[in-house]
Amino acid sequence: MSHEVVHFGRFLRAATSLALLALAACAGDTDLGSYYITVKMLGVFESPAAATGSFEPISQNYNITDIVLVEADDTETSILDASAEKEFVIIDRSQIIAKKAIAAANVDKAYNGFRVYFDSVVTGTSKLKSDHEITIDTTSVGYGSFTMPKGSDVTFTVRIKWKGTVIRDESAGTDTMEIPQFEMKASGL
Fold it and tell me: In angstroms, what CA-CA distances link 170 with 167, 174, 175?
Protein backbone atom coordinates (compact mmCIF):
# COMPACT_ATOMS: atom_id res chain seq x y z
CA MET A 1 0.00 0.00 0.00
CA SER A 2 1.44 3.35 -0.99
CA HIS A 3 2.24 6.09 1.46
CA GLU A 4 -0.38 8.47 -0.14
CA VAL A 5 -3.18 5.90 0.22
CA VAL A 6 -2.43 5.45 3.94
CA HIS A 7 -2.54 9.22 4.54
CA PHE A 8 -5.73 9.59 2.48
CA GLY A 9 -7.36 6.79 4.48
CA ARG A 10 -6.48 8.49 7.77
CA PHE A 11 -7.77 11.81 6.43
CA LEU A 12 -11.04 10.22 5.29
CA ARG A 13 -11.62 8.54 8.68
CA ALA A 14 -10.88 11.81 10.55
CA ALA A 15 -13.17 13.83 8.27
CA THR A 16 -16.00 11.29 8.64
CA SER A 17 -15.62 11.32 12.44
CA LEU A 18 -15.74 15.11 12.55
CA ALA A 19 -18.83 15.22 10.31
CA LEU A 20 -20.63 12.68 12.51
CA LEU A 21 -19.73 14.63 15.66
CA ALA A 22 -21.02 17.86 14.11
CA LEU A 23 -24.31 16.21 13.12
CA ALA A 24 -24.75 14.71 16.58
CA ALA A 25 -24.06 18.09 18.19
CA CYS A 26 -26.63 19.83 15.99
CA ALA A 27 -29.29 17.20 16.59
CA GLY A 28 -29.08 17.52 20.37
CA ASP A 29 -28.29 21.22 20.55
CA THR A 30 -30.24 22.71 23.44
CA ASP A 31 -27.74 25.25 24.77
CA LEU A 32 -27.95 28.97 24.11
CA GLY A 33 -24.84 29.16 21.99
CA SER A 34 -22.40 31.95 22.65
CA TYR A 35 -24.32 35.10 23.50
CA TYR A 36 -22.84 37.81 25.68
CA ILE A 37 -23.52 40.88 27.74
CA THR A 38 -20.87 43.37 26.63
CA VAL A 39 -20.18 46.65 28.42
CA LYS A 40 -18.42 49.45 26.54
CA MET A 41 -17.31 52.97 27.45
CA LEU A 42 -16.36 55.96 25.32
CA GLY A 43 -16.10 59.72 25.39
CA VAL A 44 -18.55 61.45 23.04
CA PHE A 45 -18.56 64.94 21.57
CA GLU A 46 -21.78 66.04 23.24
CA SER A 47 -21.83 68.80 25.82
CA PRO A 48 -23.08 68.32 29.36
CA ALA A 49 -25.51 71.05 30.42
CA ALA A 50 -22.96 72.63 32.80
CA ALA A 51 -19.97 72.66 30.41
CA THR A 52 -18.30 76.06 30.12
CA GLY A 53 -15.15 75.17 28.22
CA SER A 54 -14.34 75.05 24.54
CA PHE A 55 -12.17 71.92 24.41
CA GLU A 56 -12.35 68.20 25.17
CA PRO A 57 -10.13 65.82 27.11
CA ILE A 58 -7.71 63.55 25.28
CA SER A 59 -8.58 60.82 27.78
CA GLN A 60 -10.06 60.16 31.21
CA ASN A 61 -9.20 57.30 33.56
CA TYR A 62 -11.97 55.38 35.33
CA ASN A 63 -11.70 52.71 38.00
CA ILE A 64 -14.71 50.39 37.64
CA THR A 65 -15.84 49.13 41.06
CA ASP A 66 -18.76 46.94 39.96
CA ILE A 67 -21.10 46.05 37.10
CA VAL A 68 -24.47 44.66 38.15
CA LEU A 69 -27.78 43.29 36.96
CA VAL A 70 -30.57 44.76 39.11
CA GLU A 71 -32.98 41.95 39.93
CA ALA A 72 -36.79 42.34 40.09
CA ASP A 73 -36.55 42.70 43.91
CA ASP A 74 -33.84 45.41 43.46
CA THR A 75 -30.99 43.22 44.71
CA GLU A 76 -27.86 43.61 42.63
CA THR A 77 -26.00 40.67 41.10
CA SER A 78 -22.43 41.44 40.04
CA ILE A 79 -21.25 40.29 36.63
CA LEU A 80 -17.74 41.71 37.08
CA ASP A 81 -15.13 38.99 37.43
CA ALA A 82 -12.88 39.51 40.46
CA SER A 83 -9.77 39.06 38.31
CA ALA A 84 -10.94 41.42 35.55
CA GLU A 85 -9.13 44.63 34.66
CA LYS A 86 -10.82 47.48 36.49
CA GLU A 87 -8.86 50.58 35.44
CA PHE A 88 -9.57 51.97 32.00
CA VAL A 89 -8.25 54.87 29.96
CA ILE A 90 -11.28 56.12 28.05
CA ILE A 91 -10.90 57.98 24.77
CA ASP A 92 -13.29 58.93 21.97
CA ARG A 93 -13.46 55.37 20.62
CA SER A 94 -15.51 52.56 22.11
CA GLN A 95 -13.66 50.25 24.48
CA ILE A 96 -14.93 46.97 25.93
CA ILE A 97 -14.69 47.09 29.72
CA ALA A 98 -16.49 43.80 30.46
CA LYS A 99 -17.92 40.79 28.65
CA LYS A 100 -19.91 37.97 30.24
CA ALA A 101 -21.72 34.98 28.74
CA ILE A 102 -25.50 35.06 29.13
CA ALA A 103 -26.51 32.07 31.27
CA ALA A 104 -29.64 30.04 30.50
CA ALA A 105 -31.11 31.12 33.86
CA ASN A 106 -30.99 34.77 32.74
CA VAL A 107 -32.93 34.32 29.47
CA ASP A 108 -36.49 35.71 29.39
CA LYS A 109 -35.96 37.05 32.90
CA ALA A 110 -37.15 40.56 33.75
CA TYR A 111 -34.63 42.92 35.36
CA ASN A 112 -35.17 46.28 37.02
CA GLY A 113 -31.97 47.57 35.44
CA PHE A 114 -28.29 47.35 34.68
CA ARG A 115 -25.69 49.52 36.42
CA VAL A 116 -21.97 50.36 36.18
CA TYR A 117 -20.24 51.76 39.30
CA PHE A 118 -16.93 53.63 39.33
CA ASP A 119 -14.72 55.60 41.73
CA SER A 120 -15.54 59.24 42.38
CA VAL A 121 -11.98 60.35 41.52
CA VAL A 122 -11.38 60.57 37.79
CA THR A 123 -8.04 61.52 36.31
CA GLY A 124 -7.57 62.87 32.84
CA THR A 125 -5.32 64.29 30.17
CA SER A 126 -5.81 67.36 28.01
CA LYS A 127 -3.56 69.13 25.54
CA LEU A 128 -1.89 71.35 28.15
CA LYS A 129 -2.11 69.16 31.28
CA SER A 130 -1.55 65.44 31.79
CA ASP A 131 -2.59 65.08 35.43
CA HIS A 132 -6.10 66.44 35.87
CA GLU A 133 -8.00 65.11 38.86
CA ILE A 134 -11.71 65.72 39.24
CA THR A 135 -14.17 64.42 41.81
CA ILE A 136 -17.57 63.47 40.46
CA ASP A 137 -20.80 63.27 42.46
CA THR A 138 -22.37 60.63 40.24
CA THR A 139 -20.48 57.36 40.71
CA SER A 140 -22.79 55.14 38.70
CA VAL A 141 -24.73 55.09 35.47
CA GLY A 142 -27.60 52.77 34.68
CA TYR A 143 -30.13 51.49 32.24
CA GLY A 144 -33.79 50.90 33.16
CA SER A 145 -35.98 47.80 33.13
CA PHE A 146 -35.53 45.14 30.45
CA THR A 147 -36.01 41.44 29.74
CA MET A 148 -32.94 39.40 28.83
CA PRO A 149 -33.42 38.13 25.26
CA LYS A 150 -32.73 34.64 23.97
CA GLY A 151 -30.41 34.25 21.01
CA SER A 152 -29.05 37.78 21.03
CA ASP A 153 -25.98 39.58 22.28
CA VAL A 154 -26.71 42.54 24.55
CA THR A 155 -24.48 45.60 24.64
CA PHE A 156 -24.61 48.35 27.25
CA THR A 157 -22.61 51.45 26.29
CA VAL A 158 -21.57 54.07 28.83
CA ARG A 159 -21.37 57.38 26.97
CA ILE A 160 -19.29 60.08 28.67
CA LYS A 161 -20.45 63.46 27.39
CA TRP A 162 -17.30 65.54 27.61
CA LYS A 163 -17.48 68.16 24.85
CA GLY A 164 -16.56 71.57 26.26
CA THR A 165 -15.37 70.19 29.62
CA VAL A 166 -11.83 71.56 29.23
CA ILE A 167 -11.29 75.27 29.86
CA ARG A 168 -8.08 76.51 28.25
CA ASP A 169 -6.12 79.59 29.22
CA GLU A 170 -3.72 79.98 26.29
CA SER A 171 -1.84 82.92 27.83
CA ALA A 172 -1.09 81.01 31.05
CA GLY A 173 -0.64 77.71 29.18
CA THR A 174 -3.07 75.83 31.45
CA ASP A 175 -6.15 73.66 31.13
CA THR A 176 -8.86 73.01 33.72
CA MET A 177 -11.12 69.97 33.41
CA GLU A 178 -14.80 70.03 34.37
CA ILE A 179 -17.12 67.14 35.26
CA PRO A 180 -18.62 65.26 32.30
CA GLN A 181 -22.14 63.83 32.11
CA PHE A 182 -22.94 60.11 31.81
CA GLU A 183 -25.63 58.15 30.03
CA MET A 184 -26.11 54.50 29.14
CA LYS A 185 -27.52 53.13 25.90
CA ALA A 186 -28.42 49.50 25.18
CA SER A 187 -28.67 47.40 22.04
CA GLY A 188 -29.86 43.86 21.46
CA LEU A 189 -32.76 44.06 23.90
Answer: 10, 7, 8
